[in-house]
Design a protein that fits this description.
With about 80 residues, the chain is of the alpha+beta class. The protein has a single domain, classed as TTHA1013/TTHA0281-like. It has one helix and four strands. Strands 3-2-1-4 form a four-stranded mixed beta sheet, with helices on one face. Strand 1 and strand 2 form a beta hairpin. The radius of gyration is 16 Å and the shape is elongated.
Length: about 80
């Protein structure tokens, strides 16, 4: 197993209403999903496929770290 996890960013696209994942560690990674849970399941399939397509020698398991970011606004009480 690789000891260093691959770093994947997930950002909420408010216009598309989707989570979008990209990574500098996984060449060509750009995928999206409606929930973070679905995105993680998709990444478990897409990451090994992209690494193999880019000639990366894969071990049986490929760990990745998902950092998610979503901006929101909290409204104060009406005065």
């Amino acid at each position: 197993m690789n000891t260093k996890p691959l770093f994947v960013r997930a950002e909420w696209d408010n216009e598309a209403m989707l989570w979008v994942a990209t990574s500098d560690d996984v060449p060509g990674l750009a995928t999206e999903s409606d929930t973070l849970e679905n995105l993680v399941q998709k990444l478990k399939i897409v990451i090994p496929e992209l690494l193999e397509a880019n000639g990366v020698d894969l071990s049986k398991e490929t760990p990745f770290e998902l950092l998610s970011r979503r901006f929101e606004i909290a409204q104060g009480p009406a005065v």
